[in-house]
Design a protein that fits this description.
This protein is of the alpha/beta class. The chain has helices spanning 5-15, 30-41, 95-103, 119-131, 167-180, 185-195, and strands at 20-21, 24-27, 44-45, 49-52, 110-113, 135-140, 155-158. The radius of gyration is 18 Å and the shape is globular. The strands form 3 sheets. The protein has a 3-stranded parallel β-sheet with strand order 5-6-7, with helices on both faces. Strands 1-3 form a two-stranded parallel ribbon. Strands 2-4 form a two-stranded parallel sheet.
Amino acid sequence: MPNGTPARAALAAAAAGRSVQLVGRTGDDPTADGLLLSLAQGGVGHAALLRDASLATPLIADPPFDDPGDTSPDGEVEGPADAAPEPAAVHSLDAADVDLGLRYLTEFAVLILAEPAGPEVIRVVADAARWNAAKLVIVVEAGTDATDGLPSDAIVFEAPIDDRDGAFAALVGRFAAALDDGTESADAFRESISAEGWTQANSD
């Protein structure tokens, strides 16, 4: 099952009936084969997904919810006994990769940057959104600010620290699908949180 915000958001947007292409980079290995198959079965295209034989596609296992882990003599939790080891460093796309991937796509109305990226990558994505007159949605890490230089109408989501169930990623995907359908941003957000069973807090 695809993991991570980019794949999960793409699958959610495709499930909402939109045409979706995923821009990214994987290794050239059985894990990547399984990922591409799952994306294709979910209606997500990968014409702009680069395969690099020098990389190993990360395989990230979610820790179980109900295993509190071993407790040390002083009562501190040491971590689940069967937790997967920390994955190797994830190889993020660089600006040239993103630019090349986006050149495979001739037309798009919404562009999501769904994982943390450096300023050069953000600049490439922002320029592509301006060039295509596309809505830009950016996901940033919890506690970080959006990078300067974004289009004035860019929409920024702050990712939760833990999205192991994919609820946040699905919200982003549904939101993008609603934007692609011509829905205004505020209405698209309300539709997205409603679809995920969330409620919007009211403030006086």
